[in-house]
Amino acid sequence: MPDIHHETFIEAPIERIFDLARSIDVHKETLAKTNEQAIAGTTSGLMELGDWVTWRATHLGVRQKLTSKITEMERPHRFSDEMVKGAFHSFVHTHEFIELEGGTLMKERFSYRSPFGIIGKLADKLFLERYMTRFVVNRAHELKRIAEAPSGTNQSS
């Protein structure tokens, strides 16, 4: 079961990072390359504990749907979302925020299980774990870019 860890220091207040990370609208903006669209559940605004969203996107050339739910939230320090239905056997994505001098440390842990048993494990080794790591890292970089933008230069704040 792959377990991806990533940390990003962002020069912005913890509350801002927490809200950006759980914003449906910011999610769509940061993942425009995969054409992420919220098509059911909470489709705009900020996700709260118990909220769910169904995403439609194209990953690895395949159009797919995935439903996740916010299963844990401790504002503004932590929240987790878990897959309810989708291409993975399961996943849990935990976001932690630590207030530091000059900004916030955003720590992410994305743990997933691929479907299809041994074939899924082989896919992990060949390409999927690398793809998912880039996915998490690229989204974190985009969140950092948005959060650190001068006031008034971003519609997503």
Automatic annotation (TrEMBL):
Pfam families: Polyketide_cyc2 (PF10604)
Entries under SUPFAM superfamilies matching the protein: Bet v1-like
Gene3D superfamilies per the UniProt record, alphabetical: 3.30.530.20
Coiled-coil intervals, chain numbering: none
Tree of life domain: Bacteria
Protein name: SRPBCC family protein
